[in-house]
Amino acid sequence: MKSDEKLIFESNLPNSAVQIWKKQGKKVIGTICCHVPEEIIHAAGLLPYRIRATGCTENSQGESWMTSFSCSFASSCLEFLLNGTYDFLDGVITSNGCMHAQRLYDNWRLNDMRSYRQSLTVPRKVSDSAISYYREELVQLKAALEKFSCVAITDEKLENSVKIYNETRRLIRKLYDLRRSESPVITGTQSQKLILAAMSMPKEQYNELLSNYLEEAKGREPLATYSARLMLIGSALDDPEFIKIIEDKGGLVVTDVQCFGSRYLWEPVEIDGDLMTSLATSYLKRPTCHRMVDQHQALFDFIIDMVKNHNVDGIIFEKMHNCDLWGGENLFLEERFKKANIPVLSLQRDEIMTNTMQVGVRVEAFIEMLQGVGI
Q1: Which residues form the signal peptide (predicted)?
Q2: pLDDT at 373 over 70
Q3: What is the CATH number of domain 158-370?
Q4: What pLDDT does residue 225 have?
Q5: In 10 A of CB 93, how many CB atoms?
Q6: Is the domain defined by 8-149 classed in CATH 2.40.30.10?
Q7: How many CA atoms lie within 13 Å of 227's alpha carbon, on the beta-carbon side?
């Protein structure tokens, strides 16, 4: 089996890597937000596993516990808890990322008796005081994980974990470089599957497989012709099938600003100095998460850099119904994109896709517009 085929297989939920990990008597900790520093979990000898709802086909149980105003991503994740999909987890850590993630965690606590549960309070600004506050949150997380795992998280162990994760970051950046090429050898659909695998298996194993894939990719033939180079922005998107709908219409998703994409392990963590401060700084400043209230300009600048560096022809906004964070952010950004003469298509979606045909038609029309057809 080729390296990418192995990684795509491990992107499934659950996967063989987790099953092997559990058979060895080791524990798995689910995380609900990108702001949970996985390096600390890893240093405790635990496996961080990003909670998602990929492949969920119905969420009647989840919806019965969530309000009608909750997004379907949160209720679908809860569905997987209730139907036993996440029985392999030994605990869960979340943050105050958005209202729906917090409600997911609250209902998780009510329905799950596993021994370890924790919620981090992450500041919504980037400042010296915010970093100092978040550092103390991470110190408490470290102490709680040491107690749960019966493992002392020494400076040496933490530094080793940071180095392993920095290697993952370096390799993911190389993956995005492949997509940036004028003649890409990987689709956006395939790329997201490779990143989902990063969230679902031990990083040491993942780094080896992704490194092998990147080497193998050098000899691959470029993709067949495509009609437009596109960028994805918006709500939590953990389903490669949504990207496939776009790419089946002739578009190629060459980059993104997504929690399940570029925002995951993008910039390296500084190893010099106090590691807890470095982690707090890195996770607060990671490519300008839209939950941050003082980073609108930085978010816009990051997107513009992505557009230029990846030769993007147009942006697709995908907003989950009832998404509180993107409810206003997309309007703010759309207006600025128009002033910058960047074409934008806004789509509404749910975790369980029921409007596949409508999405396909709108994407097709958008690509034709980008080509100068039908204007």
Answers
A1: none
A2: no
A3: 3.40.50.11900
A4: 82
A5: 26
A6: no
A7: 17
Taking Cα atoms as reference points, which of 311, 52, 298, 53 lies closest to residue 176? 311
- Domain pair 8-149 / 158-370, same fold: yes
Cα dihedral 324, 328, 331, 337, rounded to 10, equals -90
The residues pairing with 120 across neighbouring beta strands, listed in sequence order, are: 95
Structure tokens at 301: 């600048």
Which residue is listed with tokens 């370890």? Answer: 116
For helices 296-309 and 326-339, angle between their N-to-C axes, nearest 10 degrees? 60
Please enumerate in sequence order all residues whose Cβ is within 8 A of that of 128, keeping only pairs 6 or more positions apart, or say none.
Answer: none
- The residues spanned by each domain of the chain are 8-149, 158-370
Detail the DSSP E strand segments found in the chain. Answer: 28-31, 47-50, 91-95, 116-120, 228-234, 251-257, 314-320, 344-349
Return the H-helix or E-strand segment holding 179: helix 155-180
pTM of the model: 0.94
